[in-house]
Amino acid sequence: MARKVLGYIQLIWTCSYCGTKNPGAIKSCTQCGSPQAPDIQFEKVDAESFDFIKDEALIRMAQKGADKHCPYCGTRNNIDAETCLKCGGDITIDAKVRESGATIETRANNQKSFAPQKRPQPFLIIILLVVIVGFVFLIRNLTRTDQVSAVVSAVSWQRSQVIEAYQRVERKGWEDAIPSGATLVSCELQYRYDSDASRPIATEVCGEPYTIDTGTGLGQVVQDCIYRVYENYCTYTKMDWLPVETLVTSGVDLSPHWPTFELASEQRTGNRTERYEITYSAAGDSFTYSTTNESLYLQAQPGSTWYLEINQFNSVVSAEPVQ
């Protein structure tokens, strides 16, 4: 996600010694003169608006990088300073650079983050455990099967064969994915994807502005933006194989066969399917088992005995002949 800089604003900080609120760019307390503590937190002057800085010198200061604290007196100095502005000490080494890059939240958000979390109530935990145990018990019962001995009472089968023809067909797709040899009919711009970088045809969509701590007492106001990219979505025609007929044969015996046919010019065979059903009788009840296993179906001689696995919905999940 692209980050768009809107500008820079003045922040404030509260003196740890006397409680005075000071402008962010001021290095020491304006009331008592104490240096700013290294761990002091900057705040926004106004949580609801952004009063952007016009002073180019301040903007350049914010862009240089986070300030550093003198290792001798603790005073905050610009990142490119070589001697402390207060005590004159060498700050090219051992100076502590302020942390930067964090999002500056409003005071209300900060208070929310410290709100004590409620502990789960014991009875809620008990209810949750009961629900889990009940769910496990239910699943075990629903997946349980019973074995039943049954006799084959009827059989049936059905087979189908799709016939395809090579003909011109209309398709739709993105312009860069149109196959070679296709004939273009029309195109129109449509949204395709989001990008972090700008594209020739794109709409910029940005979120709410927020403030980043630069570590200089100034805040960088930014927005997270994406680009909604639009590209040509086209209608085109091409030659392709299409289903034109489905031939079906069926029967109630143990001699399944495929449909017979003759292919015309520019025709070919497509998908074929087969489905077999065996009906069983057991203690006055009737069960039907559907399968695509031809070998299993051919063993279903009427009157033969089979073992069936019946689930809790009274459906056959598996069947095998008694050897």
Roughly how much helix do the residues carry, as a percent range?
Answer: 10-25%
Q: Ranges with pLDDT <50 over ≥5 residues?
A: 107-116
Oligomer: single chain
Written as H for each helix and E for each strand, in order along the chain, the element string is EEEHEEEHHEEEEEEEHEE
Distance between the termini: 67 Å
| Morphology | elongated
Biggest sheet character = 12 strands, antiparallel
Radius of gyration: 39 Å
Can you describe this structure?
By secondary structure, the chain is mainly β. It folds into three domains: 2-113, no CATH class; 146-164 and 243-321, no CATH class; 166-208 and 226-237, no CATH class. The chain is 13% helix and 45% strand. It is built from four helices and 15 strands. Strands 1, 2, 3, 7, 8, 9, 10, 11, 12, 13, 14 and 15 form a twelve-stranded antiparallel β-sheet that branches. Strand 1 (2-14) and strand 2 (21-23) form a beta hairpin. Mean pLDDT is 90; it is low at 107-116.
